[in-house]
From TrEMBL:
The keyword Chloroplast does not apply. Belongs to the LysR transcriptional regulatory family. It comes from Actinophytocola xanthii. GO terms for molecular function: DNA binding; DNA-binding transcription factor activity. The keyword Transcription applies. This is LysR family transcriptional regulator. Residues 13-68 form the HTH lysR-type domain. Keywords: DNA-binding, Transcription, Transcription regulation. GO terms for cellular component: cytosol.
Length: 304
């Protein structure tokens, strides 16, 4: 046993200690975590030591700073637990907040195009509405919705037709489908497979790929969907600019799977539809059930 029984007791673990531990584990550095949290390095060290004493387990190796087996297990609990605490605070604040003429929308890079028609409808009804659109990576989007940093989120992913997106547990959020589109493999125009009418993902396992977790279909999802190993990354792309990803594909640095851009111009690449397995690019509107006023009207327009 590694002494994690106290995690199930909400009175047994101080959330402040958990936040310090998560920050150190994520940053792999006590000093970097201290800067992020606004504490001294000594204070963060003491907080982690206090948490270890409370749980009766060493959570972090010190040199280099990495989670122990117990620490890795605790991270699995702590990250969603802290998110739920932040979401609870945001939900209460949202209920107490007065109506606003401002709306903040968050969207992953491949979902932002779904916003246009619904936003136009709402702005016709509310001409003085001030809208902020934030393009966010997939990993950040749900957190921003749960903590009320954005009012409505547009999340996306590759799933079987009509399946819901596998969103992380971030409290009682509501997720409703907005649209589904076919997927395509983007290749350089002179690629040997560029003239095909369709492609099976399993046949591309040995190809070089661009790992773009916030813009393209993640490589891990391709492995799972195709039931095949491989999908080696030639380049990792950590941006949210789809145009930059397309340029890398066109220059021959690797392949990527995106929504089929049929009818749209993608300069310098060829898009070949994915024929197997049957997957679609799905966009869902995600928001709190307590959403009200103009943000709620926008959410309804997106899913209506």
């Amino acid at each position: 046993m590694i002494g994690l029984g106290a995690i199930s007791d909400t009175d047994g673990v101080d959330p402040h200690l958990l936040r310090s531990f998560v920050a150190v584990a994520r940053r792999r550095s006590f000093s970097a975590a201290a800067r992020e949290l606004g504490f001294t390095q000594s204070a963060v060290s003491q907080q982690v030591a206090a948490l270890e004493a409370d749980l009766g387990a060493v959570l972090l190796n010190r040199r280099p700073v990495t989670p122990t087996r117990a620490g890795a297990r605790l991270l699995d609990h702590a990250v969603p637990l802290l998110l739920r605490l932040d979401a609870a605070r945001a939900d209460v604040a949202r209920l107490a907040a007065p109506p606003s003429a401002r709306v903040v929308v968050g969207a992953s890079p491949l979902a932002v195009t779904a916003l246009g028609p619904a936003l136009a409808d709402v702005r016709r009804e509310h001409p003085d509405l001030v809208v902020t659109v934030r393009v966010l990576g997939r990993s950040a989007l749900i957190r921003e919705v749960a903590t009320a940093a954005v009012d409505v989120g547009l999340a996306d992913g590759a799933v079987a037709p009509s399946d819901s997106l596998p969103l992380p547990d971030a409290g009682p959020l509501r997720a409703v489908g907005v649209l589904e589109r076919p997927l395509a493999v983007l290749l350089p125009p002179r690629h040997p497979l560029a003239g095909r009418a369709g492609l099976r993902l399993a046949d591309l396992a040995a190809a070089g790929w661009i790992d773009a977790p916030d813009t393209a279909v993640p490589l891990g999802r391709l492995r799972t969907a195709a039931g095949a190993e491989g999908y080696r990354a030639s380049v990792r792309y950590e941006g949210t600019d789809v145009g930059g990803l397309v340029a890398l594909v066109g220059a021959g640095h690797g392949l990527a799977v995106l929504p089929d851009p049929t009818g749209a111009a993608l300069s310098g690449v060829t898009a070949v539809p994915v024929t197997e397995p049957r997957l679609v690019h799905r966009v869902e509107a995600v928001h709190s059930p307590t959403l009200a006023g103009v943000p709620a009207a926008l959410a309804a327009a997106l899913t209506g």
